[in-house]
Amino acid sequence: MNTDLYADIIIEISHEQLDRPFQYIVPDELRGVLRVGDSVNVPFGRANKVISGYCIELKDTPDYPVDKLKNIIEIRSGEMGAEGNMIALAWWMRSHYGGTMIQALKTVIPVKKKMTVKTHKRVDLSVDRETLGAVIEECERKHHTARLRLLSALLNEPTLPYELVRDKLGVTSPTIRSLEEKGYLRVTETEYYRNPVVTDAQAHTQYELSPRQREIITTVMDSFDRGTPGRYLIHGITGSGKTEVYIGIADETVRRGFQVIVLIPEISLTYQTLLRFYKRFGDRVSVVNSSMTQGERYDQYLRARKGEIDVIIGPRSALFTPFTRLGAIIIDEEHESSYRSENVPRYKAVNCAEYIAGARGASLVLGSATPSMESYYKAERGDYTLFTMDERLTGGALPTVHIVDLRDELRSGNRTIFSDKLRELMDEKLSRGEQVMLFINRRGVAGFISCRSCGYVVKCPHCDVSMTEHRGGRLVCHYCGHTAPMPKTCPECGSKYIAGFRVGTEQIETEVARMYPQSRVLRMDADTTKERGSMEEILRTFRDHNADILIGTQMIVKGHDFPLVTLVGILAADMSLSISDYRAAERTFQLLTQAAGRAGRGEQPGEVVIQTYQPEHYSVVTAASQDYRAFYEEEIEFRTLASYPPVRHLLEILVISDDEDEGFAAAGAYKAIADEHIGGSGRGYSIGPAPAAIVKIRDKYRHVLYVKHTDMEELVSIKDLIEKYMQAHPSRRVLTFFDFD
Ligand code: ADP
Ligand code: ZN
Ligand code: ZN
């Protein structure tokens, strides 16, 4: 006698009203075949339209009368399902980041379609080193930079993965082919993926670990071995040997038969870094990146599931790699904003990693030179074990930092965006043939108002964040909705130079070209990097010293190593201080610290000029002295006083509506729900609703409501209550989005 089987299915419709499991009968032929996570077709609705969905649970007893249930039609053979252990993660993500379950499921299934596994290529050196040396010399003479790059890489590493050569060294297929035709190298294709780097890894530069590095690795592994995997934050300046610690922990974890996920922001996935991992793990490591095809991703997915790889490296989606014996998750540069998803569910990789590591018994290791306030706060409270690494292993002095007060420049008649100090140093460095980077901090410059005479920024008297200029010249606070008229003169000093601050990279480029007509200038910003590969191309041109000055936005400050750069100019350091966001100071500190870190990476000592209207602001001062602790102390005080995360948690509820009154009413109802839930506990409160940053886009009205609470889970409950209310009061004209912290 067969026992009956029932399946809960999440159907593929992104509509809040249908965001719940629907139960179906598992027909005989699928019994024992259908697994939790599988993608299936089911009949849905009165018309029995065939619709796809995911099986999230199997049950022996039905929750509804059996005669009301329909049969599952089939398992969708071409589609990837979710791993069983990812279902719980999807539920967790749904409850912590909002959105529907189907959106959460699709997030944890990084590969949608099954593909035929393609062949894999590698590049082998096919001449002896002496011949190669001669060819390299010739390329140098003829300035064949792409060939030079590849051949020099092969000199160090005679076998390289084709993708690494193409994607990271930026050598095009025609170039590789022409070198192959000349007989210098061979491209080999294999059916089965074999990572070609199988060099005499250990013979290579395998230095002794420093006592500190060893201590960290041992602590992490001892906990793991005792069955109590820990959570760690490594605060270490650039060059202090963090990557080597990650590799050590990964290695030890793999030796114990477990697998490791390493997250590195895409922009820092450089050839050098990847090569270090390839050398240690050979064909047991794999890399995912955004330029991979579906087929390549599918291939990685399968290899991970089959246990053919031990270590995966990649950006945030690598977190969902289907390892069966996960032993550690390592996240480098954990403060990076790219670890936060911009699509619903807007998950944060660090928090998901914490959940996954907890559920699967894995160690969690976070590392950064400028840890996020949230992570450092957790370390302070003992949620994470903190390790500090404050010595550079490769020597190299910290740069000399000059802070220039832009108010003085205006006073002395300099109306340009280049201070006298910056120009003087630019003259000096450029005349010596050294390189200069100019950085303009343009994050979220949405029309804040400042005085160019005294640096005064118009801020909300209630929230201490800057007010934003709206059409019609009104100033609005995006947190509480407070409005004020646009001042004609500066309330602080009476100057008439008070206006929205707008300086762009293009404007700087024009100015630089005028001042230094002899210099070769590159610009890197959202406009010049639209095309795939263009960013790598700009960086490469600069590294090869085919340009003297690189102008850019925050893109240029991330982890790149340019040994010839001896001067970094930060043109308006406080621009990001003025964004209407409670993290403004944190962002500024991170950007300034990173930007300053670009100077003097080579033999020559570096200098940094920070131009600012607020030279006394603690984020500027502490970044100049590279003093993270000092910054943290000041900032946590501000967060405490103003009740911002990480001290309190913050739930942002965004209501988008066709009708202004209706949207406002919905936001008001949500506020009532939140206030009632908090009651008189004194541990939380709500603010708003207020018109959002851009009040009206495409005829939609936006309102925002904030709820603050000491306990994150309470905010999740409030979100759940509001969702219940939404299901009871469905409206097609009002859309609601939730966002935590
Ligand atoms: P981080 O990731 O903190 O920037 P890395 O691990 O990349 O630091 O190390 C910085 C430099 O120091 C690298 O060139 C690396 O090869 C070197 N290095 C790392 N550990 C050691 C060590 N124990 N002894 C000597 N050099 C080391
Ligand atoms: Zn003023
Ligand atoms: Zn306000």
Descriptive report:
The chain is an alpha/beta fold and 741 residues long. It folds into 5 domains: 6-108, GIY-YIG endonuclease (3-Layer(aba) Sandwich), CATH 3.40.1440; 118-192, no CATH class; 211-389, 3-Layer(aba) Sandwich (Rossmann fold), CATH 3.40.50.300; 400-445 and 503-639, 3-Layer(aba) Sandwich (Rossmann fold); 649-740, Alpha-Beta Plaits (2-Layer Sandwich). Helix content is 33%, strand content 23%. The protein is built from 21 helices and 31 strands. Helix 7 (211-225) runs parallel beside helix 8 (242-255) and helix 18 packs antiparallel against helix 19. Mean pLDDT is 85; it is low at 194-204. The structure holds adenosine-5'-diphosphate (ADP) and zinc ion (2 copies).
